[in-house]
Recover the amino acids of this structure.
């Protein structure tokens, strides 16, 4: 029997990699996509199959985590073996601006899905994965952070995800649903949303190197994160649902770097040597050297990174470092892609896009560059 999976957030970074992974494993993949005024399926267009073809194995349903009637109907139609709840308002800074919406989607959305599974009598059939997050640790109480480390969330996003974490545990304990939390540390890829810090850096510096932008404006570049590659992390999401008993796992690399280091690696990939100068909001990054004509639009002495307090958060998570020992021991999971390899892959993709854009511009086919960050 072909297994069926339902993914909320299939149009997002993780949803797209997970859908690819499950299709390769032979699953029939169903996804919930939001109605938007423009196409929003760019990340999955390459795997999407025309529903008019016979035996299409990827099927999209309109829906929203704020709509229980919709979730109940889709679950009832699909009768999935596995549900991956990846849908969320996932931006920490935005959650300070839209706290109530973030709670509705990220906290209540999880409850709505679990309750629909229970209400429809799918509790013995359907396994449930909840996209939990290292943001739960917030103001860290122990380093490195593991499954037993106490939580201290620091944003409306993290508080909403705390509810989602515990309601997942509660439905497991109360109703015997196979439900688990993956407590995932930051993971990135060329498909990462443009306003998360790594992609903002690789895209921004690539655009600057090609003359499409002048300067990259950043927030707290001393923040420390444990970054992995989304491809490695979605494999683990699936592995967690294949165990005999449901359990929660931390997924991380166990290595930590600063945002500043990520800027330096990205610049180096573009052949640019940077020097940081100044302190606090006066800090800036100046071009010290350029390898050949690798960055044709800039010259030595240019300031290409500045600090803008607009990107500081009302409450910051300064440092996160995960301990993936349990995932390694119990499931044999280890990340295969290093953060430096990932950075090189992201810069290569963004540079390709920037060059294409520059070429169009030089030929009078100008397009505006979106710099909303
Ligand atoms: P993205 O922001 O790339 O994707 C989020 C997905 O959720 C998109 O498909 C989005 O749709 C969808 N979505 C947003 N709001 C709603 C809603 N109201 N109803 C239904 N769907 C909605 O996130 P990632 O792929 O990076 O992350 C996946 C999940 O993992 C998220 O829950 C995130 O909070 C969590 N997480 C992510 C980590 C990371 O480092 N990436 C680390 C730990 C946890 P649309 O495309 O239309 O916007
Ligand atoms: P995070 O990721 O908040 O950890 O949440 P993000 O990439 O947004 O920020 C990481 C760190 O970089 C600092 N920073 C900036 N961040 C952004 N976005 N833009 C900037 O200009 C900037 N300058 C510095 C931030 O302050 C922060 O310290 C991500 C999301 O994917 C969540 O959904 C997920 O749960 C967690 O990772 C784990």
């Amino acid at each position: 029997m072909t297994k069926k999976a339902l993914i909320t957030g299939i149009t997002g970074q993780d949803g797209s990699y997970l859908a690819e992974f499950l299709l390769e494993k032979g699953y029939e993949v169903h996804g919930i996509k939001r109605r938007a005024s423009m196409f929003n399926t760019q990340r999955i267009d390459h795997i999407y199959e025309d529903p008019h073809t016979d035996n299409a194995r990827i099927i999209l349903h309109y829906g929203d985590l704020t709509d229980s009637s919709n979730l109940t109907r889709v679950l009832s139609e699909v009768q999935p073996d596995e549900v991956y709840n990846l849908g969320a308002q996932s931006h920490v800074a935005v959650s300070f601006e839209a706290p109530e919406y973030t709670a509705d989607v990220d906290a209540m959305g999880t409850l709505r899905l679990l309750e629909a599974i229970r209400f429809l009598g799918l509790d013995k059939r359907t396994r449930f994965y909840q996209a939990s997050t290292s943001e739960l640790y917030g103001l860290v109480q122990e380093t490195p952070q593991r499954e037993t480390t106490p939580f201290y969330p620091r944003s409306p996003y993290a508080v909403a995800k705390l509810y989602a974490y515990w309601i997942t545990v509660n439905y497991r304990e109360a109703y015997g649903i196979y439900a688990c939390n993956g407590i995932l540390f930051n993971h990135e890829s060329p498909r990462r949303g443009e306003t998360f810090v790594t992609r903002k850096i690789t895209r921004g510096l690539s655009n600057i190197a090609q003359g499409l932008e002048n300067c990259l404006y950043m927030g707290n570049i001393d923040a420390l994160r444990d970054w992995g590659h989304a491809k490695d992390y979605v494999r683990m999401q699936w592995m967690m649902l294949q165990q005999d008993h449901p359990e929660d796992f931390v997924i991380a690399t166990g290595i930590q770097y600063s945002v500043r280091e990520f800027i330096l690696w990205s610049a180096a990939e573009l052949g640019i040597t940077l020097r940081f100068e100044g302190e606090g909001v006066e800090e800036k990054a100046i071009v010290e050297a350029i390898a050949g004509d690798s960055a044709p639009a800039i010259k030595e002495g240019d300031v290409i990174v500045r600090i803008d307090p607009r990107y500081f958060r009302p409450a910051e998570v300064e440092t996160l470092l995960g301990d993936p020992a349990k995932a390694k021991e119990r499931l044999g999971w280890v990340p295969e892609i290093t953060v430096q390899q990932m950075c090189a892959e992201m810069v290569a993709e963004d540079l390709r896009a920037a060059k294409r854009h520059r070429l169009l511009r030089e030929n009078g086919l100008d397009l505006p560059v979106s710099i909303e960050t």
In short: Residues 90, 92-93, 133-135, 185-186, 195-197, 200, 218-221, 223, 225, 259, 311, 313, 316-317, 373 surround guanosine-5'-diphosphate-rhamnose (ligand 2) (CB under 6 Å). DSSP finds ten helices and 15 strands in the chain.
